[in-house]
């Protein structure tokens, strides 16, 4: 019995010894791990190994985009070295000439021209500036020089192209357009003054110029003359014939009244053209009013032949 027990202890001791001998192989000791770490630290690093390699040339810069789009269209022609300079802007120009010459008057040594603009007619003298920017710079026998003041541009209206051949000069020096063909057969237009034969000094009175014509009259620039020492103009107005048209006038202190009037172009029958209101100044004298110049324009802008009316006279009493 003791022998068996002894054998059992021997077996256990042998098993224990075998277990102890096998234990180091299952779990490596710490010093072995440290040795491995030390060995790895002694090996040269990767950059170090690459530095030992021979130096190679670097790749050059790319010459183009590898995947860029490409057009197979033919190349455009080369552009000019310098672009053409833009065309210079045209200088401003005045508006179309709105005036035409309807007549010309020489009075008291000065030249006056009768201008027409549309249906309007009026007198003009050198140096006068109109509301639309035109100025009369010169009046000569062959042309009228106008300057468009905003631009300083001169324009000319030829007398011959508008008036034709100069008409024979009358005492009141009027050059007008040739009469309408056939007008002579109808007879010239008749004009007359109508007013009181006697007036009182200081009391205003009216004098009307009337006309009768067998042809339509569209416009009539005219000039009246009076003695400024005996009569003083108080008012100038259009007669009934031009009541619905245009009317303008200008009074000269030397004793002249310039009138420009236009209407619908009716046929006048003893119709009032213009009415002037005077105030008599000097009693005991006879005042006179006369027609210095007149141009009757028909529907086509041509002059109508007319007779020269007798001067109007009135006695001024106290």
List the helices and strands and how they pair.
Layout lengths: L1 H25 L3 H13 L3 H6 L48 E8 L2 E8 L2 E6 L8 E6 L3 E6 L4 E6 H5 L10 E2 L7 H4 L3 E5 L3 E3 L4 E8 L9 E5 L4 E8 L7 E7 L3 E7 L8 E10 L4 E10 L1 E2 L5 E2 L7 E6 L1
Parallel strand pairs: 9-19
Antiparallel strand pairs: 1-2, 1-7, 2-3, 4-5, 5-6, 8-10, 10-15, 11-14, 11-16, 12-15, 13-14, 16-19, 17-18
Q: Would you state the CATH class of the domain at 177-317?
A: Mainly Beta
Second-tier CATH architecture of the domain at 177-317: Sandwich
Number of DSSP E strands:
19
Strand percentage lies at: 35-45%
CATH T-level fold name of the domain at 177-317? Immunoglobulin-like
How large is the count of helical segments? 5
Please write the string of helix (H) and strand (E) elements.
HHHEEEEEEHEHEEEEEEEEEEEE
What is the oligomer described by this structure?
Answer: single chain
Distance between the termini: 199 Å
Largest sheet: 6 strands, mixed
What is the helix content? 10-25%
Based on CA atoms alone, the radius of gyration comes out at: 60 Å
Mean pLDDT over the residues: 76
Strand order, biggest sheet? 9-19-16-11-14-13
Task: Describe what is shown at a glance.
By secondary structure, this protein is α+β, with helices and mostly antiparallel strands. Among the domains are: 100-163, Roll (SH3 type barrels); 177-317, Immunoglobulin-like (Sandwich).
């Amino acid at each position: 019995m003791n022998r068996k027990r002894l054998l059992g202890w021997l077996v256990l001791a042998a098993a224990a010894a075998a277990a102890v001998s096998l234990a180091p192989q299952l779990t490596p000791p710490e010093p072995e791990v440290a040795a491995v770490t030390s060995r790895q630290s002694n090996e040269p690093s990767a950059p170090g190994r690459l530095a030992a390699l021979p130096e190679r040339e670097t790749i050059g810069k790319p010459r183009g985009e590898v995947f860029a789009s490409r057009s197979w269209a033919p190349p455009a022609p080369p552009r000019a070295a310098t672009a053409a300079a833009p065309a210079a802007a045209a200088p401003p120009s005045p508006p179309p000439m709105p005036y035409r010459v309807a007549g010309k008057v020489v009075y008291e040594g000065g030249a006056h021209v009768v201008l027409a603009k549309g249906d309007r007619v009026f007198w003009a003298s050198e140096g006068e500036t109109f509301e639309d920017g035109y100025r009369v710079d010169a009046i000569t026998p062959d042309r009228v020089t106008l300057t468009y003041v905003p631009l300083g541009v001169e324009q000319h209206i030829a007398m011959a192209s508008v008036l034709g051949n100069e008409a024979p000069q009358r005492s009141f020096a009027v050059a007008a357009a040739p009469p309408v063909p056939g007008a002579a057969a109808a007879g010239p237009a008749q004009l007359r003054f109508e007013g009181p034969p006697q007036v009182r000094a200081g009391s205003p009175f009216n004098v009307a110029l009337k006309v009768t014509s067998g042809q339509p009259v569209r416009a009539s620039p005219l000039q009246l003359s009076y003695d400024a020492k005996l009569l003083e103009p108080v008012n100038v107005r259009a007669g009934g014939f031009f009541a619905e048209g245009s009317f303008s006038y200008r009074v000269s202190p030397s004793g002249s009244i310039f009138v420009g009037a236009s209407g619908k172009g009716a046929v006048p029958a003893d119709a009032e053209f213009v009415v002037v209101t005077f105030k008599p100044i000097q009693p005991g004298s006879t005042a006179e009013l006369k027609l210095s110049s007149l141009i009757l324009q028909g529907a086509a802008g041509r002059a109508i032949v007319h007779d020269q009316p007798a001067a109007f006279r009135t006695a001024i009493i106290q």
